[in-house]
Write a structure and sequence with these properties.
Elements: E1 20-29, E2 35-44, E3 49-54, E4 70-78, E5 86-96, H1 109-115, E6 122-128, E7 132-137, E8 146-152, E9 159-165
Antiparallel strand pairs: 1-2, 3-4, 4-7, 5-6, 5-8, 8-9
Length: 166
């Protein structure tokens, strides 16, 4: 009848940055050697809930001023993009060390954050109401530099972050 059942095993994506697009391709050969190809895509949500963080714009180079209170906006949504209340989101700030472009040592961003997981510059629990929350951050003048700011949802596993210069 021109129909076939094809089992599909999706591989888990534990480090996916967010929603993904799954593309399926199929090629069917006819007895005479000709073939037909078809392709379609569907959204794939590796997390039940997603978080996001928005920092202030900063100056013309994107820098935030030290010794000043900055308000960062946190959001939490379900897989359909609807705002949801989430408790115990983890807001973290990591101070980054300077790197030169030719430095291939172990202080790249991913390694730095995982290496200092238990010792962030700042950590606090955040709860969203109607999918929104605010966090305030003030970096003293004598601690200027680059920081990685992130929010994590430990229940869903999703996180979002941004490198910021103060």
């Amino acid at each position: 009848e021109g129909k076939a059942q094809v089992p599909i095993g999706l591989v888990s994506q534990p480090n996916a940055p967010g929603m993904l697009m799954a593309t399926f391709s199929g090629k069917v050969y006819e007895p005479g050697g000709d073939f037909s190809i078809d392709q379609f895509s569907v959204p794939y949500y590796p997390y039940t809930h997603f978080v996001g963080i928005k920092k202030p714009e900063g100056d013309y180079r994107g820098r935030l001023v030290t010794q000043r209170d900055h308000t960062l906006e946190i959001v939490s949504v379900d897989a359909d993009g609807r705002p949801v209340d989430r408790s115990e989101l983890i807001f973290e700030v990591f101070r980054l060390q300077w790197r030169w472009w030719w430095d291939r040592s172990g202080d790249n961003l991913a390694y730095y954050v995982s290496r200092n997981e238990d010792n962030p510059y700042k950590r606090q629990l955040v709860s969203t109401k109607n999918g929104k929350a605010q966090v305030h951050l003030n970096i003293p003048n004598d601690e200027w530099g680059r920081y990685y700011i992130r929010v994590r949802d430990p229940k869903s596993g999703h996180s979002a972050g941004s490198v910021t210069y103060f």
